[in-house]
Structures are given as C-alpha cells and as structure tokens.
Amino acid sequence: MNNESLQQGTLYIVGTPIGNLEDITFRAIRILKSVNLIAAEDTRHTAKLLHHFEITTPQVSYHHHNRTARHTQLLNYLEEGQTIALVTDAGMPGISDPGYDLIYTCIIANIPVIPIPGATAAITALSVSGLPTDRFIFEGFLPLKGKDRSDRLNQLMTETRTIIIYEAPHRLLKTLRNFKEVFGQDHQITVARELTKRYEEFWRGTLDNAILYYQNSQQIKGEFTLIIAGGSQNDGLELTIEELKDELQQLLKQGMTRSQASRQLAKVTHFSRRQIYDLSLEN
C-alpha cells in the first residue's frame, strides 16, 4: 500500500532510528507529519528528530511514570477521530518500553493500531552477530537482582535458541559473569555497542574473553545489545569432523533419517543441526 490516507481514530506505531537518522523511512516521516498528535517517550529527545525532518506536529509525553494517566486522554482523542503516532526514544515502540500498555489498551477498546516498521536494536545486532539466526528469543533487560534474576538465568540455562539481551553499561560486566556461570567460559557471545552510531562496535568471542576485554576497556559506555549462543549451539561433546561422521553413520544405519540423526547429534555436540545435516549429504 503506497501513500495510504490516514485512518481516523487510529494509533500509528512508528519506528524511529536507533542512532543514524538516515535509517528513518519515508513512510515514517509522512505519518509523523500527517497525524494530529505524537505521543513520545521523551519529547525533548523526539524534538531533535522532528526538527531535523521539519516536522511540526505537536507532541505529548507518554512514558513509564505517566502512562496510566495518559491512557484516558489519548483514548479520548482517538475516539474523537484524531490520529496519534506513538514513538519511543529509539527503535520500535513497545519493545522494552511502556508503549505496550497503550497498544494493548487500544486493542481492547477496538481502536485500530497500525505499525510503521523501523529499525530495532535486537534484530540489527542479531543480523551481524555470526550466531544462528534461524531460531532466537528476545529477553529484553534481565531482572536487576535477587531471586527474579537468578530464576531467569536458570531458565536460560537450558535455552537452545540464540538469546538477545539489552544491557546498560554499568551492568555489563555483572551480566557477562552471570552468563559465564550459566553457560561456561568458552560459550560464544557477540557484544554490540552504540548500534548505527559514530562509535558503533562489535566484539565477538567467548564469554571469558569478553569479560577480560571489557575489564580492561575504556569503552563500557553507551547502549549494549548482547547476542548469546544457545546452549546446544556451542556446548556438548567436542568431536572432530571425522568422529562426527562416524556417529552420524551409526545413527543412519539404525534407521534414522538424516533429519532425525542431525537433530539428535545437535543436542549432544557443539555442532548445529544444519551443520550436521549438510555433512550427512556428503555421505
């Protein structure tokens, strides 16, 4: 759908850049210029974006501390037929920010909600992590401390999918050490810092080396996205290719299909199911 007209009484969920202003879409700019009101997590932050693109639409704040009071006001505007764009400081609203509450409230009230896609730190970091992207989970920010944090980490101990975590700079080392306790020192991680910004950085390696690097680094600044390999993707029996081929042949001789054998071996070795399946095609 190109150049669609705004629908009266609709909440638009507008993705904004996570750093580089060039990452905004033409559609996002048009929507922000056309709606009656922009609900922003931080109006001062969003004002810089609006000024850059010569957008004069009025703003109202919508954040964690005032979201309950704002719901009634914003729903009244929408029910009167006005259009509202919801934006967060960076990325897609509703992802680790209070936007979810307003979106859910509008859905319950049968108010149309339309997404205007944009950049998201989680997917941006995952795409260049070098870790499996076919199956992953987004955990947002871990609980800060106590039983809630330890319980969440214990749940992740058996996670086989790639894990995406957001973390603040002052908690980075604590979180890296926590994951080392969960997965072991040789587990693979990609640490993405300041995505799309001037000092963007990607660090890839083991958890143990990540801790050593950031202990001695002057760059524990900015916003971090952590991409952690799932358990079965790096842990398990350390087999050579030839040993893996022998194990694979034994399972195939027992009547397993290539897919079944690959899935079973992926659970107990450091090879992924896809790697094992591709190897099975060579025989």
Defining key terms:
five-stranded mixed beta sheet, 10 strands, five-stranded parallel beta sheet, 3 domains, Methyltransferase, Cobalt-precorrin-4 Transmethylase, Domain 2, elongated, 41% helix, 283 residues, alpha/beta, Cobalt-precorrin-4 Transmethylase, domain 1
Distance between the termini: 48 Å
Tell me the overall shape: elongated
User: Roughly what percent helix?
Assistant: 40-55%
- Per the CATH scheme, the topology name of the largest domain is Methyltransferase, Cobalt-precorrin-4 Transmethylase, Domain 2
- How many strands, which pairing sense, and closed or not: the largest β-sheet? 5 strands, parallel
Q: Which sequence of SSEs, written as H and E, runs from N to C?
A: EHEHEHEHEHEHEHEEHEHHHH
Write up what this structure looks like:
- The protein is an alpha/beta fold and 283 residues long.
- The protein has three domains: 11-119, Cobalt-precorrin-4 Transmethylase, domain 1 (3-Layer(aba) Sandwich); 122-231, Methyltransferase, Cobalt-precorrin-4 Transmethylase, Domain 2, CATH 3.30.950; 241-280.
- It has twelve helices and ten strands.
- It has helices at 26-34, 43-52, 67-79, 99-108, 121-127, 146-156, 172-183, 207-215, 231-234, 241-253, 258-268, 273-280, and strands spanning 11-14, 37-40, 59-61, 84-87, 113-116, 136-140, 162-167, 188-193, 201-206, 224-228.
- Strands 3-2-4-1-5 form a five-stranded parallel β-sheet, sandwiched between helices.
- Helix 6 links the parallel strand 6 (136-140) and strand 7 (162-167).
- Helix 7 runs antiparallel to helix 8 and helix 11 packs across helix 12.
- The mean pLDDT is 90.
